[in-house]
Specification:
With 86 residues, the chain is of the alpha+beta class. It has one domain. 17% of the residues lie in helices and 33% in strands. Strands 1, 2, 3, 4, 5 and 6 form a six-stranded mixed beta sheet that branches. β3 and β4 form a beta hairpin. The chain is globular. The two termini are 17 Å apart. 15% of the residues are buried.
């Protein structure tokens, strides 16, 4: 998973061996000193999949992938309004 962030958004691109291979998405949020506080409700696919809606099951799957990734990285992605972080 490749992660890029700006002051208002975080962009995730999934590697070829991951469930969402070749897809990218973005989420709004706020930068932190050591990570990013992301709002899962703003999660959207980027082109060419931007017309597809991300349902709650997929959001939760992606969220869990991010939480699992957090365990091995110093840069953390947290989720607004919740305690889901590593």
């Amino acid at each position: 998973m490749e992660i890029k962030f700006s002051p208002k958004f975080i962009k995730l691109t999934f590697d070829t061996d991951e469930e969402f291979s070749g897809r990218s998405l973005k989420m709004a949020g706020e930068p932190l000193d050591n990570g990013f506080d992301a709002d899962i409700d703003t999660m959207v696919w980027l082109a060419p999949f931007d017309s597809e809606v991300i349902d709650e099951k997929v959001k939760n799957s992606i969220k869990q992938m991010i939480i699992d990734r957090n365990i091995t990285h110093n840069f953390k992605i947290l989720f607004m309004g919740g305690d889901d972080y590593a």
